[in-house]
Write a structure and sequence with these properties.
Helices cover 38% and strands 8% of the residues. It has 545 residues and is an alpha+beta fold.
């Protein structure tokens, strides 16, 4: 408690000198809890019985006075304290961001941000302002138009997900997460701190909330169009279940018989996303539709999305899987990181650092873009994308592959080599260099299969790249003379070299098919397609063993 010129103020001790300045003297030091329950006169009285001192763990000692006013309608911490204290949610601001008639008369109709200087001036005129100024701090703005966003406490319809919290944690244990730490970290923490799902949204577009209410607030929950038709007394099987058609259906309340109209809210669009596993099959067990294909494909073997979906799609899929089917919706999930520019910045139109995918594919090809995204780093790490990275992918990998392929085609055509007309010599009878590269090919195939089975596409791609380096810089370079026979057809050594390089290229094309589908198809269609047992497309071939 400090005093100056007969005026006494209460302020947190660590902030006293900064908040008050010079000339104040300490009269008394007391613990904050001594003020709990005290009544005070607010700057603008508005809610009877609410102006009482309470404690809050979120009040910081970084700036201010250590004492704050609460506004339960406009902040999550404020709302939590207000609900615990039983305060009403007083909201003198409309949906347009302007003060309503609940506010003092001199600011009614003003946009809240425009009202700041007006309020400071009015308080100063009554001697209620010790000091005013501007503080720079983090604040949310609309990413489209740049206008400041406002927090509002709103009523909502909820799904009681807390009732299945323990089951959600059990189901999560059965899921194979990549990276593994997400399972008990970012995602596991989200489940541990589960709160009920605020399901409704105040919008026009969306899946209408299937709740009808009468004037007495009795709620009728409708589970299907068939049930709605029964309650309405007419066939509604062809009704478009969206606004405005759904809003025109009026029911008789089952409790009081009064007219019941649908509530205006729609459902959170994330519910639709989480419903994908059964909605995609038109799952209507009450109509005998969609059950068989759904049951064969649920849960999914594998899903992937960006890491921010740990609290979005990954969660809604699992929550609805547990609520509806007491099961996870997926067995394996891979979290992707974000694509950033070459300086590591998030891509944004306003920064002018967005990479246009169509321009990239026209300049470098889709395979180059795929190769960078798949092999430049762990899937869950942010990866930098730009001309430099793409040029390296083309030069170091795709051009190297194409040069080896072109080398083979050039000399195979010159020698009239036909892999199906000339039987391949057994590997054991071939020169040491051939046996070495075939051994490297077999090891690569094994490691790539193991990597793909473990959802490690980055490791698999890098293993193929290491093999290509051996094939180009060692095998082809050391075997170059074996392919050129200026005097006519080559002998057994040349045949062995052609068969070895052909097998390496064809197998590499098959290994690369999921990663670089276009160059793989080009190589396969020229070198392998056609004969019995070899499909016309590399994408119809069994993955190499």
């Amino acid at each position: 408690v400090e005093e100056k010129d007969g005026e006494r103020l209460i302020v947190a001790e660590p902030l006293a000198s900064e908040a008050l300045g010079d000339g104040w003297s300490v009269q008394e030091t007391v613990r904050g809890e001594a003020f709990l329950g005290a009544r005070y006169e607010p700057p603008y009285p508005n809610v009877e019985g609410a102006h009482t001192v309470v404690s809050g763990a979120f009040v910081q000692m970084d700036d201010g006075t250590g004492i704050v006013h609460m506004a339960p309608a406009f902040g999550p911490e404020d709302l939590e304290v207000g609900l615990a204290q039983g305060w009403p949610v007083f909201k003198p601001v409309g949906d347009d961001g302007r003060f309503t008639d609940l506010a003092p008369e001199f600011i009614r109709g003003l946009f809240v941000k425009d009202a700041d200087p007006v309020i400071v001036e009015e308080l100063s005129s009554r001697g209620r302002v010790l000091r005013s100024g501007t503080i720079q701090h983090t604040y949310p703005f609309c990413w489209r138009c740049g206008t400041p966003l406002l927090y509002y406490a709103r009523t909502s319809w909820y799904v009681r997900t807390t009732a299945v919290k323990e089951r959600l944690l059990e189901v999560n244990e059965s899921v194979d997460w990549h990276p593994e730490h997400i399972k008990h970290g970012r995602y596991g923490d989200w489940l541990e701190n589960n709160v009920d799902w605020a399901l409704s949204r105040d919008r026009y577009w969306g899946t209408p909330l299937p709740l009808w209410r009468c004037p007495a607030m009795h709620a009728t929950v409708v589970g299907s169009l068939a049930e709605l038709g029964t309650l309405a007394g007419r066939d509604l099987s062809d009704l478009d279940p969206h606004r405005p058609a759904i809003d025109e259906i009026v029911l008789a309340c089952s409790e009081c018989g009064e007219e019941a109209h649908r509530v205006p809210e729609v459902i959170d669009a994330w519910y639709d996303s989480g419903a994908m596993p059964f909605a995609q099959w038109g799952y209507h067990p009450e109509l005998g539709r969609g059950e068989e294909p759904f049951e064969r494909r649920f849960p999914a073997d594998f899903i992937s999305e960006a890491i921010d979906q740990t609290r979005g799609w990954f969660y809604t899929l699992m929550a609805e899987g547990v609520l509806h089917f007491d099961s996870t919706a997926y067995r394996t999930v891979v979290c992707f990181g974000f694509i950033v520019d070459e300086q590591g910045r998030k891509m944004s139109k306003s920064l002018g650092n967005v990479v246009d995918p169509m321009t990239v594919m026209e300049r470098y090809g889709a395979d180059a873009l795929r190769w960078v995204l798949l092999t430049s780093g762990s899937p869950w790490a942010s990866r930098r994308l730009g001309d430099t990275v793409l040029e390296e992918a083309v030069r170091q990998f795709l051009l190297t592959l194409w040069h080896v392929y072109s080398f083979f085609v050039l000399y195979a055509d010159a020698d009239d080599f036909d892999p199906d007309a000339e039987p391949a010599p057994p590997p054991a009878s071939r020169p040491l260099l051939d046996r070495w590269i075939l051994s490297r090919l077999a090891g690569t195939t094994r490691e790539v299969r193991d990597g793909m089975d473990a959802y490690d596409v980055t490791g698999a791609g890098r293993r193929i790249q290491a093999f290509l380096d051996d094939l180009s810089n060692w095998y082809v370079r050391r075997s170059r003379r074996r392919f050129w026979n200026p005097g006519g057809r080559g002998g057994a050594d040349t045949v062995a070299a052609f068969h070895t390089l052909h097998e390496c290229l064809v197998t590499t094309a098959a290994l690369l098919a999921p990663l670089t589908p276009f160059v793989s198809e080009e190589i396969w269609s020229n070198l392998a397609a056609g004969p019995p047992g070899r499909p016309d497309s590399v994408h119809l071939v069994d993955y190499p063993q």
